[in-house]
Amino acid sequence: MSLLSKTQNKDFFIFKILLFIIFSLLVYFRLHSKTFFDDEIATIGIINERDIFSIYSYVNHWDVSPPLSYILIYIGEKIFGFQYAPLLFLPLQIYCLNSFIKLTSKIFFKNNEIKFYYLICIILNPIFILWCTSLRWYSLWVPLALYIIGKIFFQKHRDFKEIFLILTSLTLMFHLNYLTIIFIFCLYFSNFKQINKEFFNFIKNKIFLFLLIFFINIPQIYFFFSNHLMNSSSQYGDYFFSFLYPAITIVFGNSVFPLEIISILFFFILILILFKNIDIFKKKIFKTFKNLIIFFSLFFIIIFLFKLGHKPRHSIILNYIFIIYFFVNLIFLKNLTLKRLSIVIFIIFTFFGINNTIKEENLIKNNINLPIKKILVFLKNEKNECKIKYVFTHNLNIKFYIKNNNNYVINSKVLKKNNYNCTFIIKTFIANDNQNDVNLVNQHFTKAKSSLKLKNFEYDKFSAIKEKIFKNKIKNNFIVEILY
């Protein structure tokens, strides 16, 4: 009996359980090995300085996002600590993913081979493992959005309980991020007949539950118009990146740089396959998935026009829709060699992305991936004779990891010449969070360059292409310089 035959029993039930176990382990390994990004460090700072009640008021008057993610991370930190706080979301993530998979995989009921690979690519999707293990809103927003997409576009009818769960999910999403407004808009206009019929019927028969959900959202609607809408300019980029990032994210995600670039070529190959099967597409694919294609197109266009697409996290859900589109097209692809080759390419990218996500290398997030752990090991192992090590750096991440260590003094305003024996001056090319720190580091770097040893730390072989695409200035192709 072949592997495929063994796994397809009872709708791949055992195989899905195995994949979710692997998924859970990968989430754990990712959390264990990761270092925090800048926005996560900012989240930690807010949570450490406040109790759970003052977080709500502070974030609603300061951040561009609602406070629910901060409150949930606060709870997660009390149970698991910051490093593993996203484990709080894991049960709900698995529930939402399983619901999405259960509904969407019905498309492939006549083609178990395609379904087999579809399940692998959806459950072990590296884009989810990368973004949804973060101390940020998208860790919960993305799985809730996928749950709703599954229910709306892949289920013919929804009962009152399911509609209530959808409305509850939308409420949670709205309290996580205002991207939910765009999501609801696209959801409604891509499926308005069915939504009007079922949701107005729900309101008519369950008016109390509807009013309860409505009133729960009123305070956050108030904060959106009074504070957050005015402070949202930091979320906007430019049109070029608001098109480029979603295009890359949709096809292969954000963890296989620089190979994401060939995702554009891969996309055009799929377009050619589409035109080759245009009659099938019109009769079977478009007719079946018309509403989903409208949702996909609307969402892409809006995040592009509002220049929100420059943040890859805003287009994560489109990656899942693309995966559906990809595997559905393979069903109708008659050339077996081309079909197998396409699957192999997609599977390779999936596992390559998982590897990079766990190792935290070659990711698009922040464009350049600073080797924070290697730098920390270097600081610890060099100059062991020094009881106190003087560290000058403008890098937010490095400062975060050494600030509570009594062996380090960070950015001292007073440094005697004899202390240069125990000094590390670290220049990086991102994470310049404080201009005064930048000036201080540059001053000491210039002053000490003739008397200290220079280590160009972590050569970035992709720096030239990153500089052209992402407009980074990476001096001499190195991402960290350390004088010590």
Protein architecture, described:
The protein is mainly alpha-helical. The chain folds into two domains: 3-359, no CATH class; 372-483. It has helices at residues 3-7, 9-33, 38-48, 52-62, 68-80, 90-104, 112-123, 126-131, 138-153, 160-174, 179-190, 192-205, 207-228, 239-252, 261-276, 278-305, 316-331, 336-359, 372-381, 396-402, 435-448, 463-470; strands spanning 389-393, 408-410, 423-428, 454-459, 478-483. Strands 2-1-3-5-4 form a five-stranded mixed sheet. Strand 1, helix 20 and strand 2 form a beta-alpha-beta unit. Helix 7 (112-123) runs antiparallel to helix 17 (316-331), helix 10 packs parallel to helix 13 and helix 14 (239-252) packs across helix 17 (316-331).
Biggest sheet record: 5 strands, mixed
Q: Provide the spatial order of strands within the biggest beta sheet.
A: 2-1-3-5-4
Mean pLDDT figure: 86
Query: How many angstroms does the end-to-end distance come to?
Result: 62 Å
Q: What share of the residues lie within helices?
A: 55-70%
Low-confidence stretches: none
Beta-strand fraction estimate:
5-15%
Q: N-to-C SSE series?
A: HHHHHHHHHHHHHHHHHHHEHEEHEHE
Radius of gyration: 25 Å
Query: Count of DSSP E strands?
Result: 5
Count of alpha/pi helices: 22
